[in-house]
Amino acid sequence: MPVLVASDLDRTLIYSSAALALTMPDSRAPRLLCVEVHEARPLSFMTETAAQLLTDLGDAAVFVPTTTRTRKQYQRINLPGPPPAYAICANGGHLLVDGVTDTDWHAGVQARLADECAPLAEVREHLAWTADPAWVRKHRVAEELFTYLVVERELLPEEWVKELAVWAEARGWTVSLQGRKIYAVPKPLTKSAAVREVARRTGAELTLAAGDSLLDADLLLAADRGWRPGHGELADTGWTAPEIGALPERGVLAGERILREFLRAARQG
Q1: Which of 14, 90, 109, 245 has the smallest C-beta neighbourhood within 10 Å, fewest atoms?
Q2: Angle at 191 between CA 263 and CA 151, to 5 degrees
Q3: What's the pLDDT score for residue 266?
């Protein structure tokens, strides 16, 4: 039976220059590979060692990139190794099969959202009224499924985030703060549901997962084994669970460690 590996991307496997956390002397810094270019500028990186590990993983397991990114944002990424047959975008809102959206899956997601939580328009309106332009830089909607703000993190009031989380909870939404972005996402929109569907289609009986944010918690809980890095929302709150490895590494070296763990577990089956 194949092993399924479902991993978050940003700040789990790939890292912006601001998130690399290269704390060692420059002469000992790892060699980096650029895996994303945006507007002719390098944007995301992994170590060259991690790139080789990911290539090896593609031969040992069904690797499924599992991201909150939109399809357009995901398609900017050029990961090493064989092209994934499946990818999950928009936090589970889109299931890509050989790069093409599975329209039946997306229609089912839309139906669940309509039945189980407040509409996107209501959440967008609340954010527009309550978020202070002094610290908000952008309002964004992703795939007409969820919304997020790009903020000046040092000016962002913690109390506002807590109040937003309480307001959203009552309406069937969840809030996640990741770097300079505040996400508001419907609760039924989950990575884990899409991963279960891929496991069903591939016949995988062992699922491995990794992620760093609150939006990855359901993914980790749904996996047979999982790992989180030493940075991010989950680490900051001390989140853990049975069968979840809390790794000490932070930044781009955490991505390398996660891939080592994936490859070891996939080969063991």
Answers
A1: 245
A2: 105
A3: 97
Q: Quick check: helix, strand or coil at residue 100?
A: strand
Dihedral sign for Cα atoms in the order 3, 232, 140, 221: positive
Angle (nearest 5°) at CA 41 between 38 and 42: 90
- At 176, which helix (H) or strand (E)? strand 173-178
Task: Read off the tokens for 192.
Answer: 């884990």
Residue 206 near residue 61, CB atoms below 8 Å: no
Kindly report the number of other CB atoms within 10 A of residue 238's CB atom.
7
| Beta bridge partners of residue 15, listed in sequence order | 45
Q: Compute φ and ψ for 12, nearest 5 degrees.
A: -125, -60
Question: What residues of the chain score a pLDDT lower than 50?
Answer: none
Roughly what angle, to the nearest 10 degrees, separates helices 120-130 and 158-169?
Answer: 160
* Confidence (pLDDT) at 243: 95
The rounded distance, in Å, linking the Cα atoms of 71 and 68 is 9
Structure tokens at 77: 């990424």
